[in-house]
Design goal:
The complex is a heterodimer of chains A (205) and B (207).
Chain A: H1 6-22, E1 32-35, E2 37-42, H2 49-57, E3 68-73, E4 78-83, E5 89-95, E6 102-111, E7 114-115, E8 133-137, E9 145-149, E10 153-158, E11 165-169, E12 173-174, E13 179-187, E14 193-202
Parallel strand pairs in A: 1-10
Antiparallel strand pairs in A: 2-3, 3-4, 4-5, 5-6, 6-7, 8-11, 9-10, 9-13, 12-13, 13-14
Chain B: H1 4-27, H2 30-34, E1 41-43, H3 48-58, E2 68-69, E3 92-93, H4 95-102, E4 114-116, H5 129-133, E5 140-143, E6 153-155, E7 160-165, E8 172-179, E9 183-189, E10 198-202
The chains are: A mainly beta (205), B alpha+beta (207).
């Protein structure tokens, strides 16, 4: 999406250090480790084509000065998570990596730090047309990074903006069953594992 | 005494096997006990009346978040499930799963063909209500609500229901999988005049 900014670079470095610390823990990363980029801002600070595409898709969403946007760019794809304190809904848009075209999205019920469901999206595909799955994870208290393990790569998603973190998997997709499984570890700032789960998510609602 | 011992052992083993079978049956969900993952049947034609029939089979069969499998005995065999939990394996579809099956869509979002899914085929499909609302997928398109007729749908970001009978006073009869407590049924709704709902049409009807 946009070029790497200083805060984003700091976030990436911090997440890398955090992951390195976490390597001592039981949920060891597999293969290559990729740390995703994240940027948080009010909606006025973003005027990127992906955000415009996302707001077009969710035409009913009313942008206010308090609307927050978390923009992520990772190995499997990019995403936007949009929330406004006046709305009980959380909006997400998913984009193919590189191509940066809107390929999927999600709407969840977000209230008092609770999300009704991971809001799985299986509409995006990689360059080889293999399906990808995207879902939200709600960080536990003190979590600073969400680590998602795939067979050959581990992706780190820095927690940001006080919002659920939109994560991706390719290995865990069960397309015929409209579901996916994510291997998720939540890590504290010092690298400790706070939670580990195999998140089972289904397309629903 | 020596003759009795094998009989006692056999009886004990039988009782253990019986209790294990009972425990397994008690743990089985509606989906694990009844549903399948068979391939759908492709059909060159698709009629709105036929889709109404598909929808009516699902009526009274309950509601299951993320679900897409039901029988046809007018009993919800997975009642009182925890709200918005897909893992409990209950009977029924949710709103988007019901729509996917009634509209006889493909798992391939680029395929606009017609696919008859068995009622016990556990399939939800790749679309949520928000996807339908946005007209995502080749078979689906946004459509003016004022022109919506039988088997067109009204979708919001969190729900979708199909027109069963068009109303004259602003309220339509909608066939929908609404919630765990209300199940799948025909309800009178004012989605047509509700600004949070948009019109959606399944493309490719034969008639």
């Amino acid at each position: 999406m946009d070029r790497l900014t200083a805060p984003r670079a700091l976030t990436v470095v911090a997440a890398g250090l955090l992951l390195a610390a976490g390597c001592r823990d039981h949920a060891k990363p597999t293969g290559r480790v990729f740390v995703g980029h994240v940027r948080v801002a009010g909606v006025g600070r973003f005027r990127s084509p992906p955000l415009r595409a996302c707001l077009r898709r969710f035409g009913e969403f009313r942008v206010t000065r308090r609307t927050r946007v978390v923009e992520r760019e990772g190995l499997l794809g990019a995403s936007l998570t949009i929330a406004d304190p006046r709305s009980p809904l959380l909006y997400g848009c998913d984009f193919t990596p590189g191509r940066r075209t809107l390929c999927g999205g999600a709407v969840g019920e977000w209230h008092a730090g609770r999300l009704n469901d991971p809001r799985l999206d299986i509409l995006c595909t990689d360059r080889a047309r293999r399906p990808l799955a995207v879902a939200w994870v709600v960080p536990v208290p003190r979590a600073r990074a969400i680590v998602v393990r795939e067979r050959r790569v581990t992706e780190v998603y820095p927690v940001a903006g006080g919002l659920p973190v939109r994560i991706w998997t390719r290995d865990g997709v069960r397309y015929e069953r409209s579901s996916a499984v994510f291997d998720v570890t939540q890590r504290a700032a010092d690298g400790r594992t706070l939670a580990h789960e195999r998140l089972h998510a289904a397309v629903a609602g | 005494m020596s003759l009795l011992r094998p009989r006692v052992v056999f009886l004990a083993a039988f009782l253990v096997a019986l209790s294990l079978a009972a425990a397994k049956a008690a743990l089985a969900t509606f989906v694990s006990a009844n549903c399948n993952y068979n391939a759908p049947t492709s059909s060159p034609n698709m009629y709105r009346d036929g889709s109404v029939t598909v929808a009516l089979v699902a009526r009274y069969e309950g509601y299951h978040w993320g679900g897409g499998c039901w029988n046809d005995n007018d009993v919800d065999e997975g009642p009182n499930e925890p709200l918005q939990t897909s893992s409990t394996g209950g009977e029924g579809g949710d709103c988007s799963g019901l729509t996917f099956k009634v509209w006889r869509e493909s798992l391939n979002t680029g395929d606009g063909g017609h696919y008859q899914w068995g009622r016990l085929r556990n399939v939800h499909g790749p679309y949520t209500a928000a996807d339908f609302k946005a007209g995502v997928g080749v078979p689906n398109a946004t459509y003016p609500k004022a022109d919506a007729i039988v088997m067109d749908a009204f979708a919001s970001s969190t729900h979708i229901g199909m027109v069963y009978q068009r109303g004259t006073s602003g309220a339509d009869q909608i066939v929908e999988a609404k919630c765990e407590a209300c199940g799948t049924n025909i309800f009178t709704r004012t989605y047509r005049s509700d600004s949070s709902y948009g019109g959606v049409r399944r493309m490719g009807w034969t008639g």
